[in-house]
Amino acid sequence: MYALIRSFLFLFSPEWVHYFSMNSLRLLCSFGVTRAIIKKLFEPRHTKSVEQFGLNFKNVVGLAAGFDKNARYLRELSNLGFGFVEIGTVTPLPQAGNDKPRLFRLPKDKALINRMGFNNDGVKQVAKRLKAWKASANAGTLIIGGNIGKNKVTANEDAWKDYDICFKELFDWVDYFVVNVSSPNTPGLRALQEKDSLRKILSHLQTINKQQAHPKPLLLKIAPDLTTEQVNDVIDLAIEIQLDGLVVANTTISREGLKTDETTITAIGAGGLSGLPVREKSTALVNYMCRQLNGQIPVIASGGIFTSADATEKLNAGACLVQVWTGFIYEGPSIVKNICKKL
Q1: Active site residues
Q2: What is the pLDDT of residue 138?
Q3: Rounded Cα gap, residues 334 and 338, in angstroms
Q4: Which residues contact 133 (CB under 8 A, 6 or more apart)?
């Protein structure tokens, strides 16, 4: 059924379809009867909860950052069964992001390319929505992660200030934080993955965090395109700063091994590639980091997860939780239920 709906939706621009679909779902979930039907249809049953970072996740399948950037669809995503949702990436000031079109489908590869550019409503507006969500009867057991970044106009040497603002504004309203320095769509952002730049941001946030009565789990999201030396630097730094976890990995700038013709890829241009083509690269990186970390720091796996076999592959590589994004687009609203059913 979803395959038929998807073939129709794929006739329209990806970004328009995203908001059309989610706003339609929000309308359906505004009525008690249809909300209950959706929950019954898509929420997984008989799943085991998972304890990580001092938090209780109702299942291992989460939604990666970038889907619900502005915390608009938490009720709807909870009704689809997600164990956790990562909102953002959120920046201190609102920003429009890059010029459209900026989201592209590669159906032959079951992939997407995006260069959204941290488009979001700004941290104050997102914090206001999260506060309302936490006070609502719908909040329930859904774990919320806050993915934070810097504004495009902020120089890299001042980036720590943007992360500081977002951390403080969202602290009371999210369950954990993810520092995003790995998106390829904000100029210069990935340079912040270098050890010294990263240390400045993470050590500052961890200092603030530990001053709180109840510190929040602090995680770092990395790119799949790092060299082995850079990965080892991240591991050393994560241990040094006592990070609570790592998210592995963001989108890739690589275009290797795609089935889509080269002319189309060239016409699309820059952006981060996600979906099935990054599955093996992501799994290999998860496996390497988990072996090097030897259980000291847990890893959330992201990249190319469509089925329960894909999720199992990531969990067997050492991950404690998984996140979907592109798989959600291609597999539809049953993805969480289908993954959990066969885990």
Answers
A1: 183
A2: 80
A3: 6
A4: 71, 74, 75, 139, 144, 173
Q: Which of helix, strand or coil describes residue 178?
A: strand
Angle of the 228-241 helix axis to the 279-293 helix axis, nearest 10 = 50
Residue from 323, 277, 271 nearest 104 by CA: 271
Instruction: Identify the pLDDT of residue 291.
Output: 98
CATH architecture under which domain 2-342 falls: Alpha-Beta Barrel (3.20)
DSSP state of 188: T
Distances (CA, A) of 10 to 2, 17, 36, 63, 251: 12, 8, 28, 21, 21
Q: What is the mean pLDDT of residues 24-33?
A: 97
Cβ(22)–Cβ(70) below 8 Å? no
Among the listed residues 342, 343, 331, the one whose alpha carbon sits nearest the alpha carbon of residue 80: 331
> Whose CA is closest to 270, among 98, 95, 16?
98
Of 36, 19, 61, nearest in space to 343 by CA: 61
Q: Is the pTM of this model over 0.90?
A: yes
Q: Which residue ranges make up each domain of the chain? A: 2-342
Mean pLDDT of the chain: 97
Distance CA 278, CA 302 (A): 9
Going by C-beta distance under 8 Å and a sequence separation of 6 or more, which residues neighbour residue 69?
A: 87, 88, 89, 90, 119, 120, 121
End-to-end CA distance of the chain: 23
Rg, the chain, Cα only: 19
pLDDT, tens only, 125-147: 999 999 999 999 888 889 999 99
pLDDT over 90 (residue 318): yes
Of 307, 306, 340, 342, residue with least CA distance to 326: 306
